[in-house]
Fold this sequence. Notes:
The chain is an alpha/beta fold and 338 residues long. 43% of the residues lie in helices and 20% in strands. Strand 5, helix 6 and strand 6 form a beta-alpha-beta unit.
Amino acid sequence: MKCLSYRILTVLIICAVFVFGACGGRSAQSSGQQKITIQMNSVQSVGTVPVDAMVRFKELIEAKLGTDRIEIQIFADALLGNDVTVLEGMRLGTHEATIVATAITTVEPITSLFDMPFLITTREEFELIMNSPIVDTINRSLREKGYTNVSIWPGGWRNITNNIRPIVEPADLRGIKIRVPNSPTRVALFNLLGANATPLPFGEVFSGLQQGLIDGQENPDSVLVSASIMEVQRYLSVSNHVFQPYYIMFANRVWDAYPEDVKAAIVEVAEQVALECWDLDEQITNDARRAAAAYMQINDLNMEAFIRAAMPIYEDPAFVRPIGQDIMNQALRILGRI
């Protein structure tokens, strides 16, 4: 059962959407300007970094420009559709904007860089990549495909949960059916480690665990509470195998219609929220760990053994080619790995 406090907060956000603005449109203001209404989708819930950060983004941008000028409508829990549906809808004209993580790899293969295991291990490493030309390359490519990315928010590290045994060594994953997002690299990683990687939409994870269709999953710790994962899992193994970035994306046709001052304000506020996400993630992770401890056994794993076991992916052309060998090498040089 979902935690009641998070459900109530989600309902309040959704109610605010319909009380304060008409869905998906722009209304004329007495000043002659058009009020801009932006619908933002997320598959995550209140109590996770992307949704709580979007609430903060809404607060700041509406304060900066005024609610008579702009309104952000937040649709959590995939109310507008799953990530793949929304990304396609942004190209087709049925959706406006989203905050998206792994699913972005389905439209922009370069972003698979961030699915490479143990690539980013510290905040400093993430910021080195964010301040490099790699992000400019990603943004240009997204723009050519119909999307405008205004910021990338840090979302924390992904860890492994399951119902079979604590994961300490890579061999402990053998035979365990682990849900992963629709990422070829993530599928390959867990299969390489001996697990049975099973791609599923996020919305099907809780029921899949509850019904025993899958044994485990991997996600930032916040979902332990927000999606009630802790209620249907026995073991949390702190693997930090992938650092999760979130992309703040607009359909080009929507973004291009905004006045220049609105675009500038959105970018400025999005970058401010990106910095705030670090403290937000730390708080949410600590709270989630404390809550999960009442349900789950928590353990560290043999990180060196996992890193060694995962390294063949860096040599496999099937995973390096979509990113581009030049981008891969650039990232490794920035991080001092080569």
